[in-house]
Known about the structure:
The longest helix is centred in the middle third of the chain and has 17 residues, at 37-53. Helix content is 52%, strand content 0%. The protein is globular and about 35 Å long. It is mainly alpha-helical.
Amino acid sequence: xALAVPLDNEGFLLNRDDWTEELAVELAEQDEFEMNEQVxxxxxxxxxxxxxxxxxxxxxxxxxxxxxxTKELYNIFKKGPMKLICKWGGLPKPTGCV
Length: 98
């Protein structure tokens, strides 16, 4: 499935303004992940934090503000929770990701 928005070579949006919740579902599907309301809420919160602070929140701070442990986030996302939240949420790649 080809998306109608430009992505970088890792699948991150080139233009943050292209993001919609529907696009988030499509991006997750490309990564063989079925979006659910909990994950969408994490994405909404990360976007809000980015809008307020101008940076992607570190996982520990994000987890604390969401009332979950980093282990719980890894159980949901399996690999790189903040990377996937940012990727599907139209946010820049977290600086801690290589």
